Amino acid sequence: MILRRSFIAALVPGLLVAGFYGRVMAFPVDGDQTTLPAKTELNEDALDKPREVFRSDIAGGKSYLVNLGNLAFSSPGILGGVARQAGLSCGTCHVNGAGNAKFFVPKMSTRPGNFDTTGPLFNPKADNFVLDPVRIPSLRGARYLAPYGQDGRMASLRDFVRNVVVNEFAGPEPAPVILDAIVAYIQDIDFLNNPSLGPGGRLIGKISESERRGEALFMKPFPHDPNLSCAGCHVPSGAFVDHQQHDVGSGGLFKTPTLRNADFNAPYFHDGRFDSYDQVVAHFDRVFDLGLSAQDRQDLVAYLTAVGDGTQPYEREGAGASMKEINDFTTVLATAIPAGDKDIVALAVDTIGNELRELTEDYPDRKNTSVSGGEQQRVLARTALKELVLTLRRIDMAVADGRTTDAAADYRNYRYLMAAAVPALLASAEPWSLFNPAVHDSHYAALRQVMQSRHMSH
């Protein structure tokens, strides 16, 4: 889940759209209300989110370090002032460890899905005075995909993470345990399963003739250079990468991207210049003079689509999914409280508290006239979530004062509420929440109208 930024309540005659604490809309952001430029798009109100698969879940469950890394990855607190004030986290760009094809910041992006990491917005000291955005990549299977960065400039994932936090987003120097945790989290994110891929990355099962022809073309040497082939760089047995950088006619040397789950990773190329496999194949045909027929191109696209597939790539956002991640974050406190680790407790309380406040706003309050019905259920859900936030604050204060016994007691109470009362109250109110598509659409239509009215009045 992504931490979202605060919005000022908007008032129009007969309609109060208030309390949008922490939520960024999927329509352009009003520049008067945020540190980000007007027309910024973060796509944080989407109901369908990329599904996140963890290697450790298969092995028995996520470790403390992985959960801490996920928590830090979701926290604006580890980044610099501009990003922190805007409520951005690593997870804003990498939604559930995937990418964000709709992410767009004016003067920092040239198209949705890319971003200039050496621009002036978040760290003026790192500005290279060139608009050179890079595509926001998925982190699925990152442990197989070294080196890191679109140009493959860093062999170490740990060094790359530190560079993003400190240099690209002007964050403070992370504690070693935070860096280790974020790396552990990223390395735990796995590819989505693809039943069409067998041993060695070859297609198996019910494969179409077009896909089989495409696979043969993928393996075939290029006509003007028999030392080159698609499979020579996108090695099927090696997660479809070769860990090298190549010049493929796109303006420099860039590392070979994986084709695993690539159906969900558009836009393509280092700067996201292409929207589709058709455009990618046409580029290679032109640059390397492959002499492909129309049928050849179709076959290669069919093959890439088969290789790039994955089981259940998206899941519907809901209270259950939100609570599951919050519970994962909360396990960090079970270790940090007895250890009296004030810094980790403070980070956890801040991050979990923000998540709970965001979840609260998924249950609109009684003043929001764009939602009708379920008023009592919504009030009870909001009250329960606010009580959790207050309990977290007590934990933070107790640990800060050295009262770990009191903090442990509050933590037990928090866990009891999370296991017993809160899930039932959220489920009862869900028909009138923003997780209901009809309520969601009505709510954001009303807010969009308010924002447009505000913009016109200025």
From TrEMBL:
Domain Cytochrome c: 56-190, 209-308
Pfam families on file: CCP_MauG
Protein name: Cytochrome c peroxidase
GO molecular function: cytochrome-c peroxidase activity; electron transfer activity; heme binding; metal ion binding
An annotated GO cellular component: cell envelope
Keywords recorded for this protein, A-Z: Heme, Iron, Metal-binding, Oxidoreductase, Peroxidase
PROSITE patterns (alphabetical): CYTC
Subcellular location: Cell envelope
